[in-house]
Amino acid sequence: MEKLLTHLGAVTAVIGAQWGDEGKGKLIDLLTPHFDVLARANGGANAGHTVVVAGKKHIFHLLPAGSLHEGKTIVLGSGMVIHPPTLLEEIRLLREAGIDVLPRLLISHAAHIVSEEHKERDAALESQRAGGGIGTTKRGIGPAYMDKAARSGMRMETLLGKDLPLSPCITKQIVPFLDESRKNGRRILIEGAQGTLLDIDHGTYPYVTSSSTTSAGALQGLGLPPQALTSCIGVVKAYCTRVGGGPFATEAKGEVGDHLRERGGEYGATTGRPRRCGWLSIPDLQFASSVNGFTHLNLTKLDVLDTEDTIPVFFEEGFRDLPGWKAETKGITTFEKLPKEAQNYVKTIENEVGIPVSFIGTGPGREEMIRK
Ligand code: IMP
User: Fold this and answer.
1) Is the CB of 237 under 6 A from ligand 1?
2) What are residue 310's DSSP bridge partners?
3) Rounded distance from Cα 76 to ligand 1 centre (Å)
């Protein structure tokens, strides 16, 4: 781990390589002890990061997934859209669990507020869209960003000085704070929300979210310069899922998809919706790697594939069936202990993308992870 941390450097971004829900929360939770500042840069309560600690599930929508760790400074960046009641509820639930984040929470004055009207408009716009719509999370995200781009939005700074538990956390000093942090050798972990293929510019438009979900978007959303980023970990599910509408060329329909959904527990953390399931697409992964500049990959939920005879993977020229391993990998923590076929699956991804798979998830628990 020490060697890996040296490679990661001072500023690391964890970015979804697919359509979100890759399992970023678990990696973030694992890395957090080694960082000082935890930052969210984009999106809002459309995100849902699940962290399982001691068998208890914690779901974060606005706060970074590492917030369970005491003593870390939490930053909600300018690129975010925040629904204050949701944030207050998240803070309250953590306090109930004995964790007080308020003294270490910094919220950018420039983050935009999501209002009830935004949520209503989100639902109304969805109902007007043809063909089932985008399938938004109905958290008001699109309309909040619409107002921001129209320069008629309301920013968190309007809550400064108000009698709310979060208003002392709102600050105009995020940029100098992050700058100082870097100068003082404090390590910053940036938590991407959603995934590359949902990016407003680079994703499967118009079936995308309304923010920039890439590493560049994360830097922009925080006010960090591009050269600040020392590493970028792409999080990739061992298969693929998508919630909502839009193209999904490797989707597995019918029983095959249902089987993946049940084994992987593929239901939305935010909306509870069943996720569409399918297979890994190497060209999509190569694209995500090019856009984000991945330096490492985290392959998640490998154990979900334990029962497959063969595993279809999409390459440039079409599907190829890779041999399955038909053995339990759940909870394995060393690469050498994986069945040969599972090792080959990982190596194929490494070779095709040209990026090392440094983390492999083998179960939902904190400890169920191979570090390579
Ligand atoms: P919105 O972000 O609520 O506007 O939704 C736009 C699209 O992004 C929909 O297809 C959503 O299902 C999807 N989406 C938004 N947030 C997430 C996420 O955190 N994980 C997975 N999909 C998401």
Assistant:
1) no
2) 323
3) 19
Residue nearest to atom 1 of ligand 1 (CA): 136
- The burial class, CB within 10 Å (0-12 / 13-18 / 19+), for 93 is middle
| Integer Rg of the chain from CA | 20
Tens of pLDDT, residue by residue over 32-85, are 999 999 999 999 999 888 777 777 788 889 999 999 899 999 999 999 999 999
Q: What are phi and psi of 332, to 5 degrees?
A: -65, 135
Question: Ligand 1 centroid to 20 CA: how many Å?
Answer: 8
Are 105 and 94 contacting, i.e. CB atoms less than 8 angstroms apart? no
Q: Look up the pTM and report it.
A: 0.97
Query: Quick check: helix, strand or coil at residue 340?
Result: helix
Query: CA dihedral in degrees (49, 229, 76, 355; nearest 10)?
Result: -10
Pocket of ligand 1 contains residue 18 by CB under 6 Å: no
List pLDDT tens digits, range 285-341.
999 999 999 999 999 999 999 999 999 999 999 999 999 999 999 999 999 999 999
- Helix ranges (DSSP H) in the chain: 2-8, 24-31, 84-96, 116-128, 141-149, 174-183, 215-222, 254-264, 282-292, 340-353
d(CA 114, CA 153): 9
Atom 15 of ligand 1, residue of closest alpha carbon = 46
- 225 C-beta neighbours (distance < 10 Å), count: 11
